[in-house]
Amino acid sequence: MRAGEAGRALLLLAVLAGLLLPWLTVAPNRLLPGTATNGFSGLGWAAAAALAALALAVPRRVPAWLGAAAGLGGVALLLVATGWAAADSLEGLASAARAGLGGGFWLGLVAGAALVVARGAALPGPGRAALAAVALAALWLPWQAGSFESLSLVVEYRARQAAVHAALLRHLMLAGAALALALLLAVPLAWAGFRRPGAAGPVGATLGAVQVVPAIALFAALIPLLAGLLALLPALRGLGLGAIGPAPAVLATAGYLALPLWRSVLGGLAAADPAAVAAARAMGMTEGGITREVRLPLALPVFAGGLRVAVVQAIGLVTLGGLVGAGGLGALVFEGLSQFATDLMLLGALPIMALALAADALIRLLEHRLGASA
Amino acid sequence: MIAFENVSVSFDATEALSCVNLQVAEGVLCALVGPSGSGKSTLMKLVNRLVEPSAGRVLVRGADVAGQDPARLRRSIGYVMQSTGLFPHRTVAANIGTVPRLLGWDSSRIATRVADLLELVQLDPDLAQRLPGALSGGQAQRVGLARALAADPDILLMDEPFGAVDPITRRDLRAELRRIHAGTGKTILLVTHDPEEALELASQVVVLRDGAVVADGAPAALVAEDAPEFARTLLGGGQPGLRRLSLLPAEVARDACPAPADAPALPEGATLADALSRMAETGRDVLALGKGSLRLEAVLARGR
Fold it and tell me: B207 and B234 in contact (C-beta within 8 Å)?
């Protein structure tokens, strides 16, 4: 599909989402199902204006910066108008009433955002950075102005603000700890496998076997395993290790991260041009010098690829920690699931997605830099 | 300068070199030729301890290399290889400055040296800040040569340095090497599988076969009638007599008595092969060479 066709398809998707799917649902409280307001009808003139702005982003004749800016304006207008519509729809209702976001809103938002990203991708580096900054401002300013305060998701957030912030921090700590543990395991193993290729086979098979175990089963299996270990060595409890809580979550996640990290370190070390290594040795570099000055710099781009996979996996897998008492954003998701409270699930799930996307984009940038210099 | 005394090398069960004795004097450009697997690269790598002998001694500058620190020994000997082995993540200047940096030179001295070397190998100074990926094959090989010369080593090892470049570039690089060798008087060990290259560049040619030296001498001597058959076949290219004439200057067969007035003249610096060609062209059996003359019988006498 050509770029222009993709843009038209996205615009069509946004229009259909707005016309046919529920945009806002008004319910008596946070748990009961509500009555759907269909499509753009609640948004009034803003819907037409937003669509017009999005349409401006489609034609290839419009310069990329203008197309991206128009699309961004359209998306921002959709967001703000939805906030206003939510406030209007709650007028005169009991304070427990909620105005939730419907499927049409989410589909329209994703289609609009994809349109902006597609146009923005054609911009040079500084242009993309500026676009990202404007996008953040377009979210933050109406947020500060209180435009979104009537949306059920935001009401839910306000009610649990401290818990959400704590869960986000905990999520990052769990993912960071799992990543650090996996690095501690994978880097020495990869180095050993590089020095003695015979050792690489069994290590790869073992780490690969972990990947075969379903994540949820591994998280669960670690609880009795850790309980058994703690019964044998009660002293470990003094170190803060418990059969439930962060320990099984971090251990299980690290087990999954070890394979991509190990593989990328090993692959990176082996990727160094054999002629460059031979030349370094022939010129009188020591083995340590060869590793430091030739092998590692040439391994970095490959390693960054593995690191990206591992970081994104860590952010996703740690979510399951919510099931074994480790806390984090996963705990919010599972609490929401058990209560059938969609907004609470989203409160956990949206930051997880945002974190994963942001981490992916950041490390991709790093990879690109390293790739360019090597 | 370099001496191999009864050197043997074994890799696992196979013997790569057996009981090699060889002397390379200071300032000599010595070519090691032979078919692949003959042990020529292995012989060269003994000099900077990239390969260790299983028996015998290798002497460099009069000292057994076995007693020397490999890293320090290697820094004192230049090394050029076919695949260049340039560091892809370092600029041309950083690549050239590798050994001086290892030796602890200060950065301004390295920068001056890099500029001088780029000039010596006739590369544009603007290339200094490029990465090797942006260079042509010939430029990369010149950078490789500059890198080997960076710390001004008195010995240069070259492992099929011109094997991977096109014929025209190879000819330029050979001329470059001849010029640099003449200008610096370094002792050079050149591994090549190209007999023509060996004969053209070297003052000493060593022919190897199955891990043993089968011939060792001046280029012209190795294509003479009394040279070992294998060397004569390998180096002669099917016409050892012509090859030998092409290696000898016309002066060696000159007769002092002047040539007939209508005899075709031979330019200065011509070889006996050029003389024979001129005679074939003109149908004459005598040529004018400077104030003297050159007769067909004298040329033919030298071909044996």
Answer: yes
Ordered structural domains, chain B, with CATH: 2-242 (3.40.50.300), 248-302 (no CATH)
Nearest residue of chain A to residue B81 (CA atoms): A279
Q: Are the CB atoms for B185 and B27 separated by under 8 Å?
A: yes
- Among B87, B90, B157, the residue to mutate for chain A (most A Cβ within 10 A): B87
- Please report where in the chains the tokens 């022939």 appear, as a residue: A282
Token pair of B108 as six digits: 């301004």
DSSP label at residue A203: H
Domain ranges of chain A: 3-154, 161-373
**pLDDT category of residue B204 using cuts at 50, 70 and 90:** very high
Q: What is the ipTM of this complex?
A: 0.82
Three-class SS string for B209-230? Answer: ECCEEEEEECHHHHCCCCCCHH
User: What pLDDT score does A22 carry?
Assistant: 86
Mutation target to probe the B interface, by most B beta carbons within 10 A, among A283, A286, A294, A369 is A283
Interchain CB distance below 8 Å, B102 and A298: no
Inspect the interface and report whether the beta carbons of A284 and B83 lie closer than 8 Å: no
**Using 50, 70 and 90 to split pLDDT, how confident is the model at A229?**
confident
Interval A22-36 mean pLDDT: 84
- Chain A touched by B41 (CB under 8 Å): no
Closest chain A residue to B70, measured at CA: A284
Residue A1 pLDDT exceeds 50: no
Query: Measured between CB atoms, does B3 come within 8 Å of chain A?
Result: no
Q: What is the pLDDT of residues A123-136, one digit of tens each?
A: 888 888 899 999 99
- Do B74 and A284 lie within an 8 Å CB cutoff? yes
Report the chain B residue with the minimal C-alpha distance to residue A280: B85
What pLDDT, in 10s, does the model give residues B9-67? 998 888 889 899 999 999 999 999 988 888 999 999 999 999 999 999 999 999 999 98
* Pair of tokens at residue A127: 């242009």
Q: How far apart are CA B62 and CA B58, in angstroms?
A: 9
Residues of A in Cβ contact (< 8 Å) with B102: 283-285, 289
Contact indicator for A74, A54 with CB cutoff of 8 Å: yes
Distance from the first to the final alpha carbon of chain A: 33
Q: How far apart are CA A355 and CA A322, in angstroms?
A: 17
CATH code for the part of the protein at A161-373:
1.10.3720.10
Q: What is the mean pLDDT of chain B?
A: 89
Measured from the Cβ of residue B131, the count of other Cβ atoms closer than 10 Å reads 18
**CA-to-CA dists, residue B169 to A316, B139, B162, B163, B191, angstroms:** 55, 9, 8, 11, 18
Whether the predicted pLDDT of A122 surpasses 70 = yes
Amino acid letter, A282: A
pLDDT tens digit sequence for B104-141 = 999 999 999 999 999 988 899 999 999 998 998 889 99
Candidates A276, A281, A286; nearest CB to B86: A276
